[in-house]
Amino acid sequence: xxxxxxxxxxxxxxxxxxxxxxxxxxxxxxxxxxxxxxxxxxxxxxxxxxxxxxxxxxxxxxxxxxxxxxxxxxxxxxxxxxxxxxxxxxxxxxxxxxxxxxxxxxxxxxxxxxxxxxxxxxxxxxxxxxxxxxxxxxxxxxxxxxxxxxxxxxxxxxxxxxxxxxxxxxxxxxxxxxxxxxxxxxxxxxxxxxxxxxxxxxxxxxxxxxxxxxxxxxxxxxxxxxxxxxxxxxxxxxxxxxxxxxxxxxxxxxxxxxxxxxxxxxxxxxxxxxxxxxxxxxxxxxxxxxxxxxxxxxxxxxxxxxxxxxxxxxxxxxxxxxxxxxxxxxxxxxxxxxxxxxxxxxxxxxxxxxxxxxxxxxxxxxxxxxxxxxxxxxxxxxxxxxxxxxxxxxxxxxxxxxxxxxxxxxxxxxxxxxxxxxxxxxxxxxxxxxxxxxxxxxxxxxxxxxxxxxxxxxxxxxxxxxxxxxxxxxxx
Amino acid sequence: xxxxxxxxxxxxxxxxxxxxxxxxxxxxxxxxxxxxxxxxxxxxxxxxxxxxxxxxxxxxxxxxxxxxxxxxxxxxxxxxxxxxxxxxxxxxxxxxxxxxxxxxxxx
Lengths: 476, 107
Known about the structure:
The structure holds 2 protein chains of 2 kinds. By secondary structure, chain A is an all-alpha fold.
């Protein structure tokens, strides 16, 4: 069989980068290892620039085991951007953690897992990629040498492995009923089955539960706040963005490409879970006193909005999901960068310790306010445009009630987001020393802030790309 | 002899389903983390039985299910390696491997 390896060049380049950094890191003396962070960021920027050439290819490799379509390229670019931003923001933080350069290597391997995951054309590739990503995150979550971090790693490992076991059982049932593991062929094979197969419904529910863990859908969200709080903040930033976006992408592929025949069953389930996720995520965020926990619950709420894009079952919905993933990644990475920078100075993630941040660091206070308002969906910012696309895609499909739940919960979320803004702007700081932002973190902050404002005012370039991505998923 | 001849796909599915829920029960109820990891392994083994049985009874000439099972075994080993490393890390800090003692993070 002829395999065109140039179609894998993004993944091969990323894997090579990880290996090269691992070798260089062992060769150079310990005190100069901090430059590895810059090398990696530069390497990922080059790969990102190169990846634009993959748009429009829309081909499958090795008997449809691996799909290089616009949808996967769009998400690969998103993971590259997230990885670049997170690595830039975390250089100082990692230096403080004894400068272990393996941190960067495992981060890239996690990114590699996500990239393969969105390209997976069969369930075996899907599972291997999902585990590559997940195992990297188990290590990263327990990376810091404090008891909270190890505990977060352990909790994530147990619940993550449990979820992948459930997912795998579901995949094995789908394989057994259809006799194929190729995602694009499952739908055709289901069409050949006579009538309605209960085993497939069980498989479908198990797959939804397994991936529901990864995207922290209610009732599978219990790990989220614990792991987000305990894990080192750069890891939380990457876990909340990359892992979630990748799982959404693969869930969209499974539900829309492999299992559209059972849409009556899963649409009802997903709609109810989406509503519950929006409601519980946003309500539980209100009493939180820890910034990372608050952001964790808000990210649960965000997952509720994002899954409506899959529920729509059309191109507009998938495009809206892709669009919103980018906006969500930008705002979340930005918000966690602020948390990271503050905590290196104050050693605390409590919201009360953000008092008077506007006096200590006006840039960070302004940036955090913008990110939080974007997540809440306040009009001139990108989050509003994203939510508009998402809700527009389902409102004509008979889900008006879900849109209303989403709007009400967005309003609720404004309350707890603005509470943080109030602490930052109205309260007086206990400690008046200004917080210095490292130059690298400043780059991340400025880039995410500018992008969040820019895509809110002028969404055209991103929405065109998201449109292409959505079309590719459904027509390919 | 006839009893053995009559074993079909359903028997394997019942076995794997039973094992799956035994594993799930162990994960959710065991107090020691190592036992929890063992429960996870039982769950993954049940998936392997499923995959191989489906392969044998639906399309014995294509070995997709068997290959899938090998990958599952390899990844389960990787997962447990990380899990044991984390258990050692926690044990060094807190001298415990009991799940209910992992209580620094909770809402």
